[in-house]
Amino acid sequence: MKTQWLIALMVGLALVGSLAFVQAQTNGSDDPGVQQEVGASGQPIAFPHDRHTQEFQIDCQFCHFSAERSGSAGIPPVSTCMGCHTFVSGSQNPEEVELLRGYAERQEAIPWNRIYRVSSHVQFPHMRHVSAGVDCASCHGNVEEIGVIQEVAQPLTMGWCLSCHMEMGASRDCTVCHY
Ligand code: HEC
Ligand code: HEC
Ligand code: HEC
Ligand code: HEC
Ligand code: HEC
How far is it, in rounded angstroms, from Cα 57 to Cα 51? Predict the structure, then answer.
């Protein structure tokens, strides 16, 4: 798992080259020592997936930039948000956009809480699935209709992985998922 993040981090660095990204990786909810700030939404900022993906038609991979080429999908750095929110305020929850601007001004990464996670003895490569044409929605549900993501669409059990692998003719060899 450590190696996977390191690789993701290196790929991310090469692509984004931004300090904000490094902070996102090291200060995020992966670090058990970090005190999380949590609003009523269960996240430090109530980021509405539905509005961004459906109303404003932003592609998933505009934000989850490494899903096609790395093990992890990637969480966007604050600078991605500020590309719009330097100019765009909020009409429904303007105070949440103010929180976002606070992180940007302090040059702090947002300590998002992680929702989807497999056990550390399992490896899950996003790029293999995305390049095989498996939709985000097959595993994450209709994110376009979810406001703040609060729970997994389905438990990430071995049986769930295997039944799709069986259906789609993907490998069921123990060693592809377990080191
Ligand atoms: C404008 C940027 C943006 C877009 C577009 C976007 N996301 Fe996200 N996504 C985020 C941020 C920020 C988080 C972390 C906060 C959260 O969990 O809500 C996140 C979290 C997630 C998570 C939960 C990750 C975890 O913690 O386990 C999933 C799953 C996800 N996004 C899927 C999608 C899918 C599928 C789409 C397209 C339909 C999409 N996202 C579009 C920014 C975006
Ligand atoms: C491509 C432009 C774009 C990007 C990138 C973007 N947003 Fe937004 N966002 C918008 C627009 C447009 C609105 C709607 C504003 C309104 O309703 O007046 C919005 C609304 C919001 C709202 C709700 C505010 C309200 O009052 O309705 C929050 C919170 C938010 N964005 C957070 C984020 C975060 C966090 C990120 C980065 C992960 C992000 N946005 C990235 C365009 C963007
Ligand atoms: C075959 C199932 C599957 C597909 C398809 C899939 N994911 Fe995931 N996703 C997962 C699993 C499983 C995890 C937890 C991985 C882990 O803990 O290493 C996850 C974690 C995530 C995370 C949080 C951690 C990270 O990887 O950065 C985000 C964000 C995410 N997925 C977004 C997406 C987006 C966007 C798409 C489509 C482009 C997508 N996923 C396609 C199963 C899937
Ligand atoms: C919705 C269907 C689906 C689900 C659910 C799914 N996978 Fe997959 N997975 C695939 C497909 C299709 C491929 C084959 C991609 C290819 O042929 O390159 C694949 C390939 C893989 C590979 C690469 C296999 C190889 O031959 O190198 C790994 C590792 C993997 N999946 C792990 C997982 C894990 C772990 C889970 C559960 C947490 C999971 N997958 C859930 C469809 C799925
Ligand atoms: C497609 C991916 C995949 C393949 C192939 C796979 N596993 Fe797993 N395995 C998982 C996932 C995901 C979990 C974690 C389940 C959880 O945390 O609930 C898991 C969990 C386990 C566990 C721990 C059980 C537990 O309760 O956490 C063992 C032992 C195990 N697998 C053995 C095997 C063996 C032996 C094989 C080959 C016959 C195999 N796995 C093939 C994905 C896979």
Answer: 8
